[in-house]
Design goal:
With 560 residues, the chain is α+β, with helices and mostly antiparallel strands. It has 13 helices and 20 strands. The two termini are 30 Å apart.
Length: 560
């Protein structure tokens, strides 16, 4: 996980989406389209290819943590799990350069007039790594597994049933209109495992998909290796079979600066980060010609403190307001983030289509002190809580900064460090009070429906994808109205209500907007996403799971 090691801890579960962006790509690499967003890009630094793509070689890719498995119906995929998962599985849909979901493993998506019935047609001739065929019956089995899953069923709560209408055709019948349904299939929810994998008690440790690479071995906390799928169904625009690489070795490196040093030393070929110290190092190395870097653009994740509204003290609005007023965002960006990140006061990024101004309680220490006293008078208790953090060095710096700031306002704060897997479990089950977090990097906010809808605010101790346990009927009404429509103005107006209500409810105390970077050695090509199966330019970077730096490695190659 890494929105920086501590932030990216987030979302593990399901779904989709991406970020609006401008491509940087090289020959044979990832498209060259620009999005409609008005957000200005950071500079990308890439090396031109010496010629057309060629096959062969092993890519060494550093991720920042382990996943608890690769069954998309059971396991919690953070960015690292999604990055690896995209090599083993194909998504049913993927984003084009304008951040619109297009068919990928599916051949088409056809809705009825009110978006309560979607016909999904699969591509013919696609086989799983075990040789079995991809069929509509398989799709039905997988989505029934999602509907029965304690983890992922909230992501398909609006799905009533799936019916098979042909060998390659499935009918998705909804309980309510779902105009953006294909976008939900661009990430974990749209990954299609084989029936044999789902039936295998150890299937999550032995993944079998239709993806460009097949599973070879997994040594926990060390590495996971995938090898070229010789029977993969895709070819590039020149007719060359994909993927280009023979093998990818994913290694776990938890410290972002160590990843950068690995690329500079020639021990790592490719990685991602948003950790400020590492981003600064990447900028310097790229300017000196020592590595390549590409930046995510458009909508991007926010770093924030997530509060648990289902338990004391943050079931009390006064306590949440006190934390907001006590958090000096400018000092945080300067001290913790070394001025790499940018200010944030809204779940949507200025310049993107869903942004509307919304009042937010900015830093005011005197006001924070007043609210701390008010809380003590209201409840008869001091404002005391624990702050859940990861053990990485940048996470420790963040935690210490925030603890000091909050205690200046009269609060008592204990820092609790937890490794990534435990951290995710505690967030999903609500076993925390305040936590370092990062999320919401989706250009289509329908992806974020599951994180905000009250239905998913489960009691503490139960799985719930509304991690903050915030229940707001106005947010619910706006989310449902936006989901039911494909009219841009209707959607924008309703998401403006969501953004405003989040700033009033304060489940999230905004810290900064991240800079998300994928970096690579100078001989890596195709760093960003290559064209879609129909030849359209692809959304260049980010998408699945709303993570800004996940890229498909299907058309990545080594210029050696």
């Amino acid at each position: 996980m890494e929105l920086r090691a501590r932030r990216r801890v987030m979302v593990a579960a399901v779904l989709v989406v991406a970020l609006v962006a401008a491509a940087c790509g090289s020959s044979g690499g990832g498209g060259g389209a620009t999005s409609a967003t008005t957000v200005q890009p950071n500079a990308d630094v890439t090396v031109a290819a010496s010629g057309p793509p060629h096959t062969g070689g092993t890519l060494r890719y550093a991720v920042d943590g382990e996943s608890d498995g690769f069954d998309p119906t059971k396991n919690r995929w953070a960015p690292s799990g999604t990055q690896i998962g995209m090599t083993l599985f194909d998504p049913l849909a993927a984003y084009d350069a304008d951040a619109k979901a297009q068919p990928y493993l599916a051949e088409s998506f056809t809705p009825n007039a009110d978006f309560t019935h979607w016909t999904v047609t699969l591509r013919s001739g696609v086989t799983f790594h075990d040789g079995s065929s991809l069929t509509a019956a398989v799709l039905k089995t997988i989505f029934e597994a999602h509907m029965a899953s304690p983890l992922t069923h909230p992501a398909v709560a609006d799905l009533d049933r799936v019916e098979v209408s042909g060998e390659l055709t499935a009918e998705f019948l909804m309980k309510a209109p779902w105009a953006a349904f294909p976008s939900s299939l661009t990430g974990q929810l749209g990954m299609v495992p084989s029936p044999s994998m789902l039936a295998d008690p150890n299937g999550s440790r032995n993944p079998v998909g239709t993806g460009p690479f097949s599973f070879k071995e997994w040594v926990p906390d060390n590495h996971l290796t995938v090898v070229r799928n010789a029977n993969y169904w895709r070819k590039d625009t020149s007719g060359t079979p994909l993927p280009y690489l023979d093998q990818i070795d994913f290694s776990v490196i938890t410290e972002a600066v160590t990843k950068v040093n690995g690329v500079l030393a020639g021990n790592v070929d490719m990685a991602y980060t948003s950790t400020p110290a590492a981003v600064l190092q990447i900028d310097q190395a790229a300017a000196a010609g020592k590595l390549q870097s590409v930046q995510a653009q458009g909508e991007s994740e926010e770093a924030f403190v997530q509060l648990n509204l289902a338990a004391p003290p943050f079931d009390n609005l006064t306590a949440r307001q006190a934390v907001a007023y006590a958090t000096d965002q400018s000092a945080y960006i300067a001290t913790v983030d070394q001025n790499v990140t940018s200010p944030v006061d809204n779940v949507f990024r200025p310049g993107t289509q869903f942004y509307r101004e919304a009042p937010y309680p900015h830093y005011d220490l005197d006001k924070a002190k007043e609210l701390v006293k008010a809380y003590e008078q209201e409840t008869g208790h001091p404002l005391s809580f624990s702050f859940l953090s990861l053990p990485a060095s940048d996470a420790r710096l963040q935690a210490q900064f925030l603890k000091q700031a909050w205690e200046q306002a009269g609060m008592k704060v204990d820092i609790v460090q937890s490794e990534q897997t435990r951290f995710i479990v505690d967030a999903v089950t609500g076993n925390y009070q305040a936590a370092a977090w990062g999320q919401f990097g989706s250009p289509d906010p329908d992806y974020d429906y599951v994180w905000w809808i009250s239905d998913n605010a489960a009691p503490v101790g139960q799985l719930g994808l509304n991690f903050a346990r915030n229940k707001d009927p106005e947010i619910d009404r706006a989310l449902r109205a936006a989901r039911a429509s494909d009219d841009p103005k209707v959607r924008q107006d309703n998401y403006a209500i969501v953004a405003a209500r989040l700033n009033q409810d304060l489940p999230y105390i905004w810290l900064a907007r991240a800079r998300n970077v994928v970096f690579a050695a100078n001989d890596v090509r195709g760093i960003t996403n290559g064209p879609l199966p129909n030849g359209q330019p692809s959304y260049p970077m980010g998408g699945p799971g709303g993570f800004s730096y996940v890229t498909r490695l299907t058309q990545t190659w080594l210029d050696r």
